[in-house]
Amino acid sequence: xxxxxxxxxxxxxxxxxxxxxxxxxxxxxxxxxxxxxxxxxxxxxxxxxxxxxxxxxxxxxxxxxxxxxxxxxxxxxxxxxxxxxxxxxxxxxxxxxxxxxxxxxxxxxxxxxxxxxxxxxxxxxxxxxxxxxxxxxxxxxxxxxxxxxxxxxxxxxxxxxxxxxxxxxxxxxxxxxxxxxxxxxxxxxxxxxxxxxxxxxxxxxxxxxxxxxxxxxxxxxxxx
Length: 224
Ligand code: DX5
Ligand code: ZN
Known about the structure:
By secondary structure, the chain is of the alpha/beta class.
């Protein structure tokens, strides 16, 4: 189980301290939400901020590009220390080329799908990616309510992985707290992004380990 706090929910007045807090929490990955004010109606932060963060932790940098033209940012994020780049299947015909460009740069490749989008649009790429991100809110903002109608998509992605012998991560993002992490783990998720649910916790280490153990238990129950 990978626990990936989203720095979108950090205290921006103390951003470097927040990175250190996440680093020391026992979290596995940093989830870095990049918004362009076009693909989503919000703007977050860019490569210079990620480069500032890089020396503060050895954690894996998982960059989620909610951007209409993500390719213009690939090199800048790689140079800033990103280890995986996730793009959205809603980019349509652009997707195959974007996947191979990221792959050619030696980075992990993620493919995200928004709540209204049919999960079948992701299926042709199942053998080409390292991570499938099932969005459980409409992207753009932290602190939204988990959309439970997305859970069958997690089950579908898990089924494809089992049947196709793939090894991609099944990531969920949006409205993930203790209870919704359990629901997603039981459906097959193994990679949990959480902004508000973790970053606002008084004891981040306890929240990270609590989420990991609850997800593990829920996954075990589902398997048996
Ligand atoms: C939403 C982002 C998320 C966001 C999740 O557009 O992709 O990663 O940070 O925030 P919470 O966990 O607060 O829903
Ligand atoms: Zn995200």
